[in-house]
Amino acid sequence: MADTHSKEVRSKNMSHIRSTNSKPEETVRKYLFSKGLRYRKNVRRLPGCPDIVLPKYRTVIFVNGCFWHKHDCGRFVWPSSNEEYWHQKISRNIERDAENQKLLTKQGWRVLVIWECQLKKKVAAENLLQLYNDIIH
To answer: Would the pTM of this model clear 0.90, i.e. be above it?
Structure first.
């Protein structure tokens, strides 16, 4: 299946994808704040620049997009155009995630990952409660 957008339209669409302060990140941060948890955002001095850092709990949270980090949830589909580029790009993201999680764990951080699909309306409340419980316990 070929891309349904022209190269220019696809480029414009991709340029609007945020690497920080995405809707899923905001959802998680608002929930944690409502539960009384205080955090730091995108701490660059830590490996992988975690999306959310809770120093009091020695916990970092990565809010991963299902496409960019290749989640096995059914939302991920390999692009059919420019396949070699995307395989290299996404495979490198997965390797980098593993490296950063290993480094953080060695430094004494607990690493939690919540996926974009876990924040969809039908399952968000349950998954956010589980994330909260994972943090405080």
So the answer is: no
Compute the distance between CA of residue 98 and CA of residue 10 in angstroms, rounded to an integer: 29
Specify the residue for token string 């990140």.
Answer: 25
Write the DSSP string, 67-86: TTTT-SSS-----SSSHHHH
Give the start-end residues of each E strand in the chain.
40-41, 52-54, 59-64, 110-115
Burial of 7 (0-12, 13-18, 19+ CB in 10 A): exposed
Residue 6 has pLDDT above 80, yes or no: no
Domains in the chain, please, with CATH?
Answer: 21-136 (3.40.960.10)
Distance CA 118, CA 100 (A): 22
